[in-house]
Amino acid sequence: MSLLDGPETITVYVEETYEDSYGDTKTRPSETGVVITGCIVQPMSTLRLFPPLDGTQQQRVYATWRLMAKTAPLGVWARVEWRGIRMSIRSGPEYRPYSAATNHVSALLEEER
Questions:
Q1: What is the CATH number of the domain that holds 34?
Q2: 43 and 63 in contact (C-beta within 8 Å)?
Q3: Regions of the chain short of the pLDDT cut 50
Q4: Residue 18 domain-assigned?
Q5: Could you read off the pLDDT of 78-89 as tens digits, one per residue?
Q6: Residues 73, 83, 32, CA angle at the centre, nearest 5°?
Q7: How many domains does the chain have?
Q8: What was the pLDDT predicted at 55?
Q9: Which residues sit opposite 105 in a β-bridge?
Q10: Would you state the pLDDT for residue 60?
Q11: What is d(CA 63, CA 86) in angstroms, rounded to the nearest whole number?
Q12: How far is CA 13 from its chain centroid?
């Protein structure tokens, strides 16, 4: 039993390496995803860049979330999908091997726009 079992389900597109047309090895998220259940996804912050001077101008909003899961195949180039929102790894993953009830992996996610 884990104290960190949450109600959320995410899909992780793990990082994979490939060879481009020049023969260089590159990394990207895979095409197929791995479904992870029992996650916690917490909103962390929203950063608004270039606030509008009037109501007709647009502004760009960056939203970040903290992901905590018992296990997840996260990597720097992985992509996460949660409730239809595609996110990239902004920070982490950080593996926390504390005890059988509290060990988990966490990462900071940023919405892809």
A1: 2.40.10
A2: yes
A3: none
A4: yes
A5: 999 999 989 988
A6: 40
A7: 1
A8: 58
A9: 69, 95
A10: 58
A11: 11
A12: 10
